[in-house]
Each structure stands twice: as structure tokens, then as C-alpha cells.
Specification:
The complex is a heterodimer of chains A (about 180) and B (about 725). With about 180 residues, chain A is mostly helical. In chain A, α6 crosses α8 and α11 runs antiparallel to α12. Chain A has 13 helices and no strands. Chain B has 4 domains: about 50 residues, N-terminal domain of TfIIb; about 170 residues, Rossmann fold (3-Layer(aba) Sandwich), CATH 3.40.50.740; about 180 residues, Dimethylsulfoxide Reductase, domain 2; about 150 residues, Beta Barrel (Barwin-like endoglucanases), CATH 2.40.40. Chain B is built from 24 helices and 25 strands. In chain B, α9 links the parallel β10 and β11. The chains are: A mainly alpha (about 180), B alpha/beta (about 725). Chains A and B meet through α1, α2 and α6 of A and α1 of B.
Chain lengths: ~180, ~725
């Protein structure tokens, strides 16, 4: 049976068929990968740059970054504290979802862009405490509207930085590249 | 085949397939499939990404175990025991763990409903109208025509309704639960009263005993306080420097999960328990020397041995074992649910008096009363429920409020509760779930789930300390439900007069504070505080308040032997050839059937899940030409049900057993139309204490010719000659 398939595959028509299949798999893969590189749609087209330009610190909306594992997404109450005093909130089309959510008491379903798999125990606090700035990992938000992820957050990327941070300090290096540091 | 395709080619092909699979499935980023839903208003003490833990009390049964619930972003995600709680010391049972499946149950009642009886569908109403309905019901009826039927949890609601009854003259609340019916609580307390002159819940110190004789008590499953008894059992089995590993003997016709843990199983003939205990007592007294107390002297062990289907040598060996070690005897289960149940309970307590263990370590005590309790209070017995149902039938009850108990399901059909409801003008259910009783109500005004509500529960038995276990909301209510205490307080205010002055509280929290801070002046508390707010804060933080004082009572057994205990056999109702033993499912209890975790949890002895079965001895099954999974009709004088057969070697050939817990006609998608309810088979026969003689029935079995495969975890291959083919039906 398998032999027959092999023989058929060796014919010109078989080779063409294999080519077509490979090509379609390849293009599907390229399309899939390109999808991962696009910023996912958000319920509100949140302009980060506008907020940064007003001088709002990252930690004002994401205070968890300095205190614990997750930076957190601000509660609607926090958004509304400023926005209900801003005239544009009443008129802007972009802000209708916020207004609706707050007035109806419904949650806004944000799509996270910078996440790691469940088996990685990432903690913001350690990184902020080590002197990392938000933009080191999340990019320059003063140039971004909807949040984008400027890099692939894989293990190599983590380790590059961990090794660089350790420098010549062997003890620190062992701590920073130990499996149990992130996987526990 | 491997001769035709080379290894190299095969690897190439396999590699191509693997690569294709990896490319097609591995590229999707996880982030695209999740959303983050932030708080609308984040509590100040919360931190994103960090769990918050709350201490509360389990409401799955009346025991009152302390819980610590892990919450994350406002959602309860894991239940564990409260390590500081003196009753359960950080442990929970399966039902406690599954309380989350009640909280997130898709069939919860989400809004107050006005409906017609017999059908759950109705129109949603708003809470103002719902409360007005309650206020009108209170105001427009005579107080003695208003009645409350409450479950065994929670106690703060019971106290509120008791206040209402005392001040406004409505009927005192009646409490009931199928668990307490199967535990024969009235019998236990009546036996203590008759022998020691003191009603109360007996407590058996299993942990420090050397030998335990359990007469049907399923104390490792659902009986009275299973977690603390299980802990006691673990210590009982542990050998230490001062004591040997304990030995246990279980006397019961059908081996329960507790019986399966025993060293010896004595399958006495149902109905002969009293005489067996008295015979053991007589033999023990003889071994100990001196005169045999009159209470034991009337029985002849040889005669008993033949009647009870036990060898005389076995009785002698058991008596030897009991007489020569620090022994305790425990009454419970089917042994008490017979026409002579009270005699059985009294005989067992007398056996403890004979062993000289009353009020001693490893012996029996009367349980400590809870802090805000002046005398022992037990739920209604089945006979008292019958009297109540008779009042309903006579039209003496115009308004009936039901909370925390599903009486249409839990009471035997023969008592006629459902029919009696038609003589009650207005039925208002506070059910959290659409259970059978809520179906028969005119209004369903849903209470919060236990994890969303306030309260407290008195610990009836299981610890030396007097414990008031505290409950607080661990999450905000998910639906448009309202605390029943709040509903009653507001409605009483609207009704005015005696009702308003009976409940002069702004809301449930104020009521709770009023009750709990009354304990501030007590000494030796687990914590103390100088102002109400601090006391309440500690009460919430620690999950309750307890007195660090050993308050269990050592009763006097001096007059115990002057009782006359009849050694006669129990009487059985009905014509059938089999003794019938209904038992509470150790996994489902009386209200666990709507929780998939519990449905999926295999029964500890049979490994059956998701249905009801009848346990029949393989010999009997062979004799009746029955096979596993064959559906039989079980017929008693009160009714009949159809259940598939499970061949169970650990049951007497003249006895059959059916678990209680399934057979719901409502109660949500997981429970409805699943299995059968053995309570339908129970006739109205009571023991001398008024408890239902649930194990005092005889049943017939008929073949139906149908098969229903029972899902079970264990393999049947090689059992009773079955092979794989035997499973095909």
C-alpha cells in the first residue's frame, strides 16, 4: 500500500501534487505567523501615546508592576475618574465603549498582548526592582496606539537579558539562568 | 510492509507529517484566545495577580467545618479547610470542595420569580415587589398560620426566625434534613436522655480508643461529623509508644465504606442488633467478673447467636476483645432506623457504661454546646415532620416559607408533603437552586449561595470546644439574589407592628453583629476585642469564635443499668423477601447531585458514578437469574422504583441496599432524571424516639428484562465469571 503511494509520488503528477501541498502548507504557516505579528483587535482602540503625552506614568494605570506578579489592567473606575471630567468623553466615537461599559456596569474584555505561557512564573516586581524600565520590554509607548508587543517573548529572549544582567558575577548568573527561577 | 518501504523513506514521510502538524497547530499565539476582564471597582486591599483568601464556613451540610477560600480577581477558585478551625483543622471533604460547583452552577435561580406550582417557569419580578409579597404574607395572616421550614444550615437564619417566632407569635421554625433523618438524631439524643438523664448529642472519642465496635455508624462517610471522626480514626489506627494500633469491628448487614475499613465485619441479621449488643454485654460482664447487670441478664447468647446468624464463638471472641481493652461502642445508621432503634441505641450506650468508658479518654461523652446555645437543639424527627404535614393537610398553615431544605425530595413520598402543599395558601421558597420544592412554590426568592452570604453555624459535635463557626461572603453575589435574612428583616419592617419590633435591624450584617458581639464578654475566647467592629473583624478573619475550654460533658451512668431494654427483634413492614437498607451516598449526600464533581466521584465501595444502583449479593443474584446492570423493579408497601443491579459480595444474601442522593425530578441539568430515589420506597413506620424506621422495610424484586449499563471505575473482568463479552448489553 505504502509502496504504491511512494511510486505514485515519484511520477511527475505526484511531484506536482506534493509541491502544491507543500506550498499551501508553507503559505498557511506564513499566514499564521504573520497573524501573530499583528496587534490583536481591542474592544477600545486605546491610544497609549496620548496618555503618555499627558505625562501619565505607566505605574499610574498599571501599579501592579511595582508590587506583584501582574502589572494589571486598570479598573473602569480608574478610567472613569479622569474621563468623566473630560469633555471629549461625551463626544468622541472612540470612547463610546468605555462610556457604555461604565454606565451599564459591564466589564471591558481586553486582549492581552504581552503574555507568557502558564508554565512560566513571571513576576514584574523583580524586574522593576532590578532597575528595568517598562520600555525595555514593552517598547516606547509614546509612539504606540494600541499596545503592540515589540519582541517575541520566548525563553531565548529572557535568557539573553538574564545573562547580560549577570555580567561577570558567577553567583548571580547561576541564580538568573536556573530553571527554577521561572519554572516552579 | 517494512520490506517494501525503506526505513529512510518511512522516516522522511513521518518527518514531513510531523512538520506539517507542527506548523499548522503550533503557530497560533495563546494571547489571541484569552481576554482579560479587569475589576469594575477594585477593592483597595486587592492586588492584581495576587490571590485573596477569606475564611468562612461550609454550608454543604450542617457540621460547620471552617473553610479558607482562595479568590482571584473577585472569583472563588479553590476551597480548602481552615487550619485554625478546631473542628476540621484544615481539612475538607469532597462535598466541601465541590461547593464551588454550587456557586458556579449554570442552573442557579438568578432572579426572584413569581410562578405557578408544578412548573419552574414563571415571570421575573423585582425585589421590591418580592419583599412586599413577604410583608403582605406576614401581615395578612394570623401569626399561627405562618410557618417556616428550614434546613439544618445556617443557624443565623434559624435564630432570626426564632426571634420572629418568640416576639411576633409565628410558628417556631421547623428544621429538617435527610442527613439527620438517616443519622436518627432524635434516637441518639433520646437514648442519652433515657440512660444519663441528659439529652444531647453523644460524642465518641475514637482517637483514644483501643477497640471500636460500630453498630452501623457510617462515621467515615456522612455521619454527624465525618471529618473529625475521620481524623479520630486516623489517630486510632496509629500505634504510639503508649497504645497499640486500634482494632475496629463493624456490625451491619451491608458493608458500608466505613465497614470496609474495619478489621472485622459482622453481618448480623437486620433487626437482631439489640439482642446482639445485649448478648455481648452479658458476655463482657461475665468476663469482667461480678454479677451481670440486670439490663443484660435477660438474653441467652446461644439463642441470640442462632437468631442473629452469628456464631457463638464469634460473640465470645468479640466480648473478649471488648472486655480486655479500652473499648467504645458507637450506635448509628440502619441499626437505629428500625422499629426498635431506640433499644439499639440504649443498649450500645449501656455497653459503654459497662466498659466504664463514659466521660473518659477513648470513651463516650455528650458533645459540648456551642457558645450561644443554652440547650441541645436537634432537627425535627420524621414523626414530627408527619405531624407538621398533618397540620398542613388540615389547612392550619396558610403561608409556608421554605429555606435550605428540599422536602419534596428528602422526605419519604409516603408522608405526602407534596400533596399537603395544595392545602397551603401560599408557598414561598428561598431556594438557590430550582429544586423539587421550589417547583411546587408560588414564589422563589433566591438566597445567595453559601459562599456569597453571611452567617454562622453552631458546631453540634466533633470537637471538645464550644465553636461558633463564622461565614462571610468570599465573592460578591453573581446574580440578582438576596439574602433571606435581609428579605425577612425588610419585610418585617414593612409589615410593621410586632414583626418590625421583633427584627429591629437595618440589615443582615447588623443582625449578625448583634448576635456575635454578645460573646465579647465571655472569657477564654479564641480572641478578644474591646469594640464591636474589631470583634467582628476578628470573627471574619478567623472564621468564627470558639472557647478554648474543654466543654464536652461527662454524663453519669450510675442509673443506666436500671433501664429495661427489650431484646426483641425489630418488626419489618411489607411482604417482600429482602431486608431493605437505604444509605446516604457518601459522595453525594442529600444535596450533592447537582454538582458534577460529586457525580463523577466514584462511590467508595462500588466505584459507581452518575446513577443509582441496587446492591445484591452475587449468590442471591444467581438464584434470581439476575446479572450485573440488569434493571429490576424494587417493590415495597409504599412504592416501587427501577434500578440496575450491582452484584455486591459484601452484603447479606437476604438484604439489598440502595444509595440515597439521586432520583431528582428537578434540581438542574446534572441531577434531573438521573437514577431513582429510595425514599419513594419508605413507609411511615417510626421507632420509639420518632425517627423514621427507614431500614425497617422488606422489599420484593422483580425482573424488568431491561438493561442499563452502570458506569463504574473498577474492572469487572474476571469477576463472577465475566469477561469482556459480559459487558456487552
Amino acid at each position: 500500500m505504502l509502496k504504491k503511494i511512494f511510486n505514485w509520488l515519484m511520477q511527475p503528477i505526484g511531484l506536482i501534487a506534493v509541491g502544491i501541498v507543500l506550498l499551501s502548507v508553507f503559505s498557511a504557516a506564513v499566514y499564521g505567523i504573520s497573524l501573530t505579528q499583528q496587534t490583536p483587535p481591542q474592544p477600545i482602540e486605546f491610544p497609549h501615546q496620548t496618555h503618555v503625552q499627558f505625562g501619565i506614568q505607566c505605574l499610574y494605570c498599571h501599579p501592579g508592576a511595582a508590587k506583584g506578579p501582574a502589572a494589571g489592567i486598570p479598573s473602569q473606575a480608574k478610567c472613569w475618574a479622569c474621563h468623566n471630567q473630560i469633555e471629549k468623553t461625551a463626544t468622541s466615537e472612540l470612547l463610546v465603549p468605555l462610556k457604555d461599559a461604565v454606565l451599564n456596569g459591564e466589564s471591558i474584555q481586553w486582549v492581552p498582548v504581552a503574555i507568557v505561557p502558564d508554565f512560566v512564573q513571571f513576576n514584574h516586581r523583580a524586574h522593576v526592582a532590578a532597575g528595568k524600565n517598562c520600555e525595555d520590554c514593552h517598547g516606547d509607548m509614546s509612539r504606540m496606539g494600541i499596545a503592540e508587543n515589540p519582541q517575541v517573548m520566548n525563553m531565548g529572549w529572557c535568557l539573553d537579558c538574564h545573562i547580560e544582567t549577570a555580567g561577570e558575577d558567577q553567583e548571580k548568573l547561576i541564580k538568573l539562568v536556573d530553571c527554577g527561577t521561572c519554572h516552579y | 510492509m517494512s520490506e517494501q518501504v525503506s526505513r529512510r523513506d518511512f522516516l522522511k514521510l513521518a518527518g514531513l507529517g510531523a512538520a506539517t502538524t507542527a506548523v499548522l497547530t503550533g503557530c497560533g499565539p495563546a494571547s489571541r484566545y484569552v481576554t482579560r476582564e479587569p475589576y469594575q471597582q477594585m477593592p483597595e486591599y486587592n492586588l492584581v495577580g495576587v490571590s485573596t483568601y477569606y475564611a468562612t464556613t461550609c454550608r454543604e451540610c450542617a457540621v460547620g467545618c471552617g473553610l479558607v477560600v482562595r479568590t482571584y480577581q473577585g472569583r472563588a477558585i479553590k476551597v480548602e479547610g481552615n487550619a485554625n478551625h478546631p473542628l476540621n483543622l484544615g481539612k475538607t471533604c469532597a462535598r466541601g470542595q465541590a461547593t464551588l460547583h454550587g456557586l458556579y452552577n449554570p442552573d442557579r435561580v438568578t432572579d426572584p420569580i413569581k410562578k405557578s406550582r408544578g412548573d419552574f417557569a414563571g415571570e421575573n419580578i423585582n425585589w421590591d415587589d418580592a419583599i412586599q409579597v413577604v410583608a403582605d404574607a406576614l401581615k395578612n395572616n394570623q401569626p399561627n398560620e405562618i410557618a417556616f421550614l428550614l434546613g439544618t444550615s445556617s443557624d443565623h437564619l434559624f435564630d432570626l426566625v426564632t426571634d420572629l417566632a418568640n416576639s411576633a407569635g409565628v410558628n417556631a421554625p421547623v428544621r429538617f434534613g435527610a442527613l439527620s433523618m438517616f443519622e436518627s438524631r432524635a434516637t441518639l439524643s433520646k437514648a442519652a436522655e433515657n440512660l444519663f438523664g441528659q439529652a444531647g448529642m453523644p460524642w465518641f472519642d475514637v482517637a483514644n480508643a483501643q477497640t471500636v465496635f460500630s453498630f452501623g455508624a457510617n462515621f467515615l462517610e456522612t455521619w454527624l461529623s465525618p471529618l473529625s471522626y475521620t481524623r479520630g480514626f486516623a489517630n486510632f489506627r496509629k500505634a504510639t509508644e503508649t497504645k497499640l494500633r486500634g482494632r475496629m469491628v463493624q456490625f451491619e448487614a451491608r458493608m458500608s465504606a466505613t465497614g470496609a475499613k474495619a478489621d472485622e465485619w459482622i453481618a448480623v441479621k437486620p433487626g437482631t442488633e439489640a439482642m446482639v449488643i445485649l448478648a455481648i454485654g452479658k458476655l463482657v460482664a461475665e468476663i469482667k467478673g461480678g454479677s451481670v447487670p440486670r439490663i443484660f441478664s435477660s438474653v441467652d447468647p446461644l439463642e441470640v447467636a442462632s437468631q442473629a446468624d452469628v456464631k457463638l464463638e464469634a460473640l465470645q471472641h468479640l466480648a473478649e476483645m471488648f472486655a480486655t481493652s479500652n473499648a467504645v461502642a458507637i450506635p448509628g445508621g440502619p441499626a437505629l432506623g428500625q422499629s426498635n432503634g431506640l433499644a439499639v441505641a440504649e443498649a450500645v450506650l449501656a455497653l459503654n457504661v459497662l466498659a466504664g468508658n463514659v466521660g473518659k479518654a477513648g470513651g463516650m461523652y455528650i458533645s459540648a454546646l456551642a457558645p450561644n446555645q443554652s440547650e441541645y437543639h436537634r432537627p425535627a424527627s420524621a414523626q414530627e415532620m408527619q405531624a407538621f404535614v398533618d397540620r398542613m393537610k388540615n389547612g392550619e398553615i396558610k403561608v409556608l416559607f421554605v429555606h435550605g431544605v428540599n422536602l419534596v425530595f428528602e422526605l419519604p413520598n409516603a408522608i405526602g408533603f407534596k400533596e399537603a402543599l395544595s392545602n397551603v395558601g401560599q408557598v414561598i421558597s428561598f431556594g438557590t437552586f430550582p429544586d423539587e420544592t421550589a417547583v411546587e412554590a408560588d414564589y422563589v426568592l433566591p438566597d445567595h449561595h453559601g459562599l456569597e452570604g453571611w452567617g454562622y453555624q453552631r458546631v453540634t459535635t466533633g470537637t471538645d470546644l464550644p465553636v461558633l463557626s463564622g461565614a462571610q461572603p468570599v465573592v460578591s453575589p453573581y446574580y440578582n439574589t438576596r439574602s433571606t435574612v435581609d428579605v425577612l428583616i425588610t419585610a418585617a419592617g414593612l409589615a410593621g407592628g410586632a414583626f418590625a419590633s421583633a427584627l429591629p435591624f437595618a440589615d443582615e450584617v447588623e443582625f449578625l453583629e448583634n448576635k456575635v458581639t454578645a460573646l465579647m464578654s465571655e472569657s477564654s475566647g479564641s480572641f478578644s476585642a474591646t469594640d464591636n467592629a474589631a470583634f467582628m473583624a476578628y470573627f471574619q478573619q478567623y472564621g468564627g469564635w470558639w472557647k478554648n475550654v474543654d466543654a464536652k460533658v461527662s454524663p453519669s451512668g450510675s442509673t443506666a443499668f436500671s433501664r429495661n431494654i427489650s431484646a426483641e427483634q425489630a418488626k419489618f413492614a411489607g411482604e417482600g423477601e429482602f431486608f431493605f437498607v437505604p444509605f446516604v451516598s457518601p459522595t453525594l449526600g442529600e444535596a450533592g447531585a447537582n454538582k458534577p464533581w460529586l457525580q463523577e466521584l466514584p462511590d467508595p465501595t462500588t466505584t459507581v458514578m452518575w446513577t443509582t444502583w441496587i446492591e445484591i449479593n452475587p449468590e442471591t443474584a444467581h438464584h434470581l437469574h439476575l446479572e450485573n446492570d440488569e434493571v429490576v423493579r424494587v417493590i415495597s408497601e409504599a412504592g416501587e422504583i427501577e434500578v440496575p443491579v450491582y452484584m455486591y459480595p459484601a452484603i447479606r444474601p437476604d438484604t439489598v441496599a440502595i444509595p440515597f442522593g439521586q432520583g431528582h425530578t428537578a434540581y438542574g441539568r446534572y441531577a434531573q432524571n438521573r437514577g431513582a430515589n429510595p425514599a419513594d420506597l419508605l413507609g411511615l413506620h417510626f421507632n420509639e424516639a420518632g425517627d423514621l424506621a427507614f431500614a425497617g422495610m422488606k422489599v420484593r424484586i422483580e425482573k424488568t428484562g431491561k438493561f442499563k449499563p452502570v458506569s463504574r471505575n473498577e474492572s469487572r473482568m474476571g469477576v463472577y465469571g465475566e469477561d469482556l463479552g459480559g459487558e456487552e448489553h
